[in-house]
Amino acid sequence: MCWRGCHAVPSCVACRLRLLLRRAVHTHAPGIQCHADWLSLLNHAAVRDQSGQRYVYPGRGNFLHCLQSTSRKRTMSWFKRAMGLEAPKASGREGDALANPLGLASGRMLCLDSSLKLLLDGHSEVVVPGDEKVWAVGRVDLGQSMALHRFYLDNEDYFLQVVSNGPNPEDVQDIILFGYYSAEPITDKAELLRLTGPSSKIGLPTYEHDGEVFERQWGTSTGQTELTPLDEDIVSPDAAYRVKHLSMLYARETGLINRREFLLFSVEEDEEGSITLTTAVGITLQSTDINVL
Fold first, then answer.
1. Residue at 1 is within a domain
2. Is residue 4 in a domain?
3. 3-state secondary structure of 27
4. What are the tens digits of pLDDT across the range 257-286?
5. For the chain, what is the domain count?
6. Is residue 163 classed as helix, strand or coil in its secondary structure?
7. What is the domain extent for residue 218?
8. Contacts of residue 170, Cβ cutoff 8 Å, sequence gap at least 6
9. pLDDT in tens, 53-66
């Protein structure tokens, strides 16, 4: 089941492709069974050498040309405290909006300041979307009352990420608008090792993406550091489920005050065992950039 909750015959194009990718992964990658397999693999465990195919979600090609990368420096200790959590209840009632930062909830309309496009021109290649409804809501417990919230939009290329320690405006610590750059299904352990293992550039202190150099935000190693595990509970109008992530965040300055670009890599495993390496780029937003209807 995809994050939209589509079942046997998904109605949207992206979900139909994701269903095909999931079937391909189950066919070609029985060796990758769980989150622990990723961790052992990234700790340089022996792997089976198999070949696989590469896929990119429909619509991601737009970001290939429109986006670069992005992220605002956040505290690594938040993510070291990340642990398992109870899945939030799906409801769509007014109470959901009150419990979430900025009043966002499934069904609410996210409206971004129209001046952002002009402001970011020449500083960031993130394309600001028009008004979009929130479809699904994700949450990662970071400990000590801190939580990472993700609001997935009807336009599947985007999600808004908010770090906060409460529902009030003054509780918001960080806001980033992310757009998916690419999504590549992992078909076997050898492919995972190739993409994220010791021979990969992911986890190194710097990462060059589309001609821009980004600095690693998590980890203190002078060499390659391990990806950070995060558990995200996601609720849509049709389903509630958990996605496990192994992530790494990079950032660069844009030349604008309080606006950084981010590059987020994440190895994602859903409850059905499908594994995908996603690359997303984002830009820092301020609460004044956002209007929720």
1. no
2. no
3. helix
4. 999 999 999 999 999 999 999 999 999 999
5. 1
6. strand
7. 13-292
8. none
9. 333 333 333 333 33
